[in-house]
Amino acid sequence: MSGKEINNSLRRAKLVPLLVGTGLSIVLCVGFVVFFRPFSNEATQTTDGMYDRESKTPSVVPPLDRNASNDNNVELEQSLELASLFEEPTSYLEGSVALDHMLQNANIAKLVDLLKQSHSLENFEKQRSARVQILRKFATLDPILALKHAESLPKIQYEHLASLIYRDWSLFDLDSALTYAEQHVPTLSREGTTAVFEQIVRANWDRPDALKLQIAERLRVGSSTARDLLVSIERDKPLDNLSAAWEEVLSAENIGEDESNRLHQIAIAVIESDGYTEFAELANSIQDRQIRTTLIRDTLLSRLDKEDIGVVFEHAVQLFRETGRPVVFELANRWSYLDPHSALKAVSDIQFYPLGEHLVNTVISNWIDRNPGDVLRQLDTFPAEYREEILVEGIWSMTAGEPEKAPEYLGEIADLNTRWSVMVNMFQNWAYRNIEEAFTWFLDNPGLELPSGYSRASLLQYLLYRVTAETGPSLFKLALEHPTDDSGSGWEGSIVGAIAREDIKKAKELLSQIRDGTGRITAYAGIGQALFDQNNSIDSVIEFTEEIPEDQHVEFYGEFAMRLRPQVVYEQLDKLPTPEAQARAALKLLQRIANSYNPFTDEQVEHIESFLTETERNILGL
Q1: How far apart are CA 300 and CA 448, in angstroms?
Q2: pLDDT at 53
Q3: Each residue of 231-243: pLDDT tens digit?
Q4: Cβ contacts of 203-211, under 8 Å, gap ≥ 24
Q5: How far apart, in whole angstroms, are the C-alpha atoms of residue 102 and residue 461?
């Protein structure tokens, strides 16, 4: 509803008491006088009966005879299906417009029914917007009953709606609104009381300043708060000649803070009186990009206090998609956190490329960041062309915040390389949050489908670097509780090697419990690496081999060599204790550089090959 339509409606509402009296009888007219009588004689009132037992709204004034505004229809009309107004239209704005048309001829019974239906609106923004429209119409028919119905709503909505009811009430009967408010505002919060004062003053701005301060005193609003608020309202009060004021400001040599505030004030007044299209024409005519962008942003964002974000967003897209893109994106961002379902529907309908696509990505990304689980559970409701990307981004986001929930969705990622990247991120974050849970998942899923070139051992590395001397023993126990793999080995050897980084003695104490198989060599190599890193000498490693069965020495040096940097292995080759150990280490080194980066010259490669025996040469095909 535009500012003009609202004002016309409220002016028509001034005739309600007269029409009611004419249509019903002199008796009801007398009743109407009685309706307001207690206010002029409140000194004789007692506190008994001032408030209903369960209501914070004063009840000293009996409500209007609501049958009078029902057009003699005592039966509640069939449900008006409020929800359908906001769900069926393709345009978000259409719901508010349709409700506005419905309210033009609505009586009390219809308004009560619509308020009840508003509870079925799941969209918070649409629910709030609908209630504002309904209760402002209600205020023109029976403001006291409107307040009582508003009171049943959540407090944060109730106090805001109450202030709007008082605003519209004060337009056609300021004295009655104030007298009633005097008894009512003590039940409100300080913010609620201030809001009532602000809305009454805004509706009656043309009254003398002395009267405005008297209103503040009657409503128990502090004089300092009242004066500050009056100064604030002064900046955006209605103007007599909007076009002239606009041109006057823009003709200034420099547009500073005062001029910018004045433009904002005029812009609000233009929207209230002539609508968004007129504002867009004025704003888009500003040549200075920074001034134009700031004005559009500040003006549209200020409208969020009075209008549904979907309505403001639609105007922003239609009128400012070229000149005000920053505010379009900011509105989409805000909307995506308030109600991502409605926001996504709205941006998906935008036909302007690439704006629509960018906004879709913005809403989806924000939704995923805030609640990836919610997104993944509703994946089928998203546009088909975005689902694969949403799936991956959703799981990726979940791996950061709730990695333990991500495995449920991993199998839905078709591309194995993509799945591997997501799984690695999940495993790292999970190990950081709860390493035992992460390791248990790893042990419980031996059949993970992995891309070519990757193994479970390479995945486990992302957990092993988080193992400590304190957490290691419990992980070692978990590994022993699970069966060995196809090679007959378990993963306890890897845990022992990880423990050795911090506590070699503790790692050695666990060696005897390792099951037969490659796990023992893995544990030996891990301890050997820890010894080498500790002393930076191969001598301590050679000494450690005395604790290893002799028939496993060669295999140990091959595994040990794989744990050092290629250049370090090259430097240590001739220091290894036996030709067999040197040959195995050289073999592993050559295989390694053949499959990855080769840091050696041809002469150095020939030197490495010189350590090979005939067996290793055959393996390499030399």
Answers
A1: 52
A2: 35
A3: 888 776 666 688 8
A4: 203/167, 203/168, 203/170, 203/171, 204/170, 204/171, 204/174, 205/233, 205/237, 205/238
A5: 65
